[in-house]
Write a structure and sequence with these properties.
Length: about 300
């Protein structure tokens, strides 16, 4: 059951990029991030009301800014510029970022398998981005890399804060605070920045359905399972389970979204998936959970 719950969040996230590409490509990324975060937080508050203590507010504001305001903004900036499958290609290199965090934060020495896997993932993803027929900017790739770094860093901060704040309260208020911080940024981007975006309050029925899916499925439900699982899994397990997010994004992009890839490109994607899964399974089998990598809840 622990594995299923930990997997559910990444699997639901894997549908986000195709949803954004199909229905919100002409939106302000900050407006979409606010629409995704704030209603989800309010929904959780209605389901199970909770109020933060004054001493908890600084931590909740920090986590809301890192995990919601910053991460959502960077992710949507990238997802609106890249094909959904290539977002998955980028995100499947998340263990590379996790490896850096493991070395820098936990002072742990990476294994030969981890280093070899990281090299293969970097080489394969570089090939796929360079050989893509889509118009790819350096900024979109930079936003994606920054989003992955923020995701891992935010997870580390969250695991520490969860020792003092109950996970439901933490999730509810990080979504609310993160969404509130996004509101003035979204207003500036929509009306003062000189950009031409679609009106975020005028939507078609399919867009409303897609937005509800982003709020309920991709955010409220997925984040509940993710935050609930954080203190119960190791950093290696986190990287492994999050692999299913980009895998699903790649599959949806190459099938449902009809994004065009050659047989060589599809083969390289397959190599990335296989390499990632084998490396994560190897590390999981050869390294038992320790008190240093698991934070008791």
């Amino acid at each position: 059951m622990r594995v299923f719950i930990a997997l559910l969040g990444p699997l639901l996230w894997g549908t986000a990029y195709a949803t954004v590409s199909a229905y919100f490509a002409d939106w302000s990324p900050f407006a979409l991030a606010a629409w995704r975060a704030l209603p989800a937080g309010l929904l959780l508050l209605i389901i199970k009301p909770s109020l933060p203590k004054m001493s908890e507010i600084p931590s909740l504001l920090l986590i809301g800014f890192i995990n919601i305001t910053l991460f959502f903004s960077l992710l949507f900036e990238s997802a609106m510029q890249l094909p959904s499958a290539l977002v998955g290609v980028g995100l499947i290199t998340l263990p590379v970022v996790g490896l850096v965090v493991m070395v820098v934060v936990h002072k742990m020495k990476p294994s030969v398998i981890q280093l070899l896997s990281a090299m293969i993932l970097i080489l394969c993803s570089s090939y796929l981005f360079l050989s893509s027929h889509a118009d790819i900017s350096f900024s979109s790739v930079g936003f994606l890399i920054a989003a992955m770094a923020v995701l891992i860093g935010g997870s580390v901060v969250t695991k520490h804060v969860m020792k003092k704040i109950y996970w439901w309260k933490l999730l509810t208020w990080k979504l609310i605070f993160g969404g509130i911080i996004l509101l003035p940024i979204a207003y500036w981007d929509l009306y003062l920045n000189g950009n031409s975006y679609a009106d975020p309050f005028t939507m078609t029925l399919p867009q409303w359905a897609a937005l509800i899916w982003l709020i309920v499925g991709v955010t409220a439900i997925s984040y509940c399972t993710y935050v609930f699982s954080l203190p119960r899994i190791t950093t290696n397990e986190l990287s492994f389970f999050c692999t299913f997010n980009p895998i699903l994004a790649m599959v949806i992009g190459a099938t449902v979204m009809g994004e065009s890839f050659s047989s060589i490109q599809l083969g390289v994607m397959g190599i990335m998936i296989l390499c990632n899964l084998l490396a994560q399974m190897y590390e999981k089998r050869h390294h038992e959970r320790t008190e240093q990598t698991v934070i008791s809840y």
